[in-house]
Amino acid sequence: CALPIYLKRPLTITVANAKGGVGKTTITRYLPYDLAERGYKVLVIDADPQANLTKSMGITKQQHDPDNIFTIDKSMMAAVRDGSFKGAVLEIVPNLYELPSQIDFRGFETFLSKKYGVAEKGDPEYLSVESKKVSLLKGLIEPIKADYDFVFIDTPPTAGQYVRNATFASDYVIIAFQTQSDSLDGAIQFISDDLTELVETFGARTDVLGILPNQVSKSGAIDQVVIKDAIARFGQQNLFDHIIPFARRIQAAPRMGLSRQGYWNQKLFDDIVDPLTDDFLKRLKIVGEVTNG
User: Which parts of 60-138 are beta strand (E)?
Assistant: First the structure.
């Protein structure tokens, strides 16, 4: 499958917000899947102890290959403890791979504290300790990053080191929010607090690729008000052109897996997923990450 555009370098992407329930995992399911179908080699990292992405990817793998039982030999947390992600990656479908999570990843922050110590803002050793903590995930991704075109990281609906590590490891973040005012507040908070500190204090080389409203009701008055607020805050040019509408089929993915098979699945890709992927690739072109030929 010929790639429509070529990347100048492998890219790590995190879908982020300071609040949960904003559609992060939904985007981290469908966008990598669609990119893989287009011929890009994609790794998704499930940095969420709830492992919702891992569950839906397992269903997807078995749906496409019923004879191949989805088993996790090495969890995300085990790989972190071993200091290497090699040997922990599973193939889901052609070109799409996953580093799966399990409930033991709840121990990630405790692991960091035991390894590097604890320091609060204002402590003399805060910069030294926190620099080591926030960069752990990046250090584990770097040795395998060149094997892929894209690495996507899914994070839990909480703040803390899960999100800080994923953001620090990323070349770009997509700021997701649902059309409720507190969800937009979470997007603003993430940029003004988390991202700003990581860039200015710890030297993260992370930029915002765009703001992505999702699960929008076209008939909802409050939805349209929040979209206008987002445009006023971030600028029209920073919002994705293709805003994800509310679609029940998207909600079914955790139970049914991802596939184009069947009328409603194909319609979902035609109407929502493919335009989102086109928009994503266009934004990468705008920021100078791709070249034709």
Answer: 90-93, 96-99
